[in-house]
Amino acid sequence: MPSPRLLAALLPAAALLLALPAAPAPAAAQTLRGSRGAVDRAFHTAKRRDLAFTRNRREIERGARKGAYVRLTASPSVRLKGVSAPFVRPTTRSFLATFAPRYRAACGEPLTVTSAMRPTSLHLRNASTRSVHPTGMALDFRAPGAACRSWMRRELLAYEKRGVVDATEERRPAHFHVVVYRAP
Questions:
Q1: How would residue 140 be classed by pLDDT, with cut points 50, 70 and 90?
Q2: pTM of the predicted model, to two decimals?
């Protein structure tokens, strides 16, 4: 039997160990860092849903005529900058229609979309070969200034926790990559 003195010394350590399961998740789980797992999840979701990975502008236009893709347009809440193919899936546009006005209300400026659908023929040097941009599931937002960047991080994490999106903050160039899984 351990001495009372030894038990008294071990009690604080035991209390700490008992409290660990109730501790919050590590900070890394609460970030917008990208991962191979996130890319794989988006890719496999697109495959499971039988979404087309468009190869060129003609396939995007054909899909839009059939209703698979919808056009993005500028508005008081959305600015399109450098978007070569302004089309996305209806669910993706629904997310943007919800998110952009909230961004404008919080930041006083329109949300800048820098990429939407990107056919496989326009593969970017820094993009994954498993990118879901060709499916219309993904958007890229320009990274705003400090105060609005903090707001965007909080909001995207909240949508991520609800399973609406998977968002990654990328550094080169500075932007947020957002894969939309379902309407908000």
A1: very high
A2: 0.79
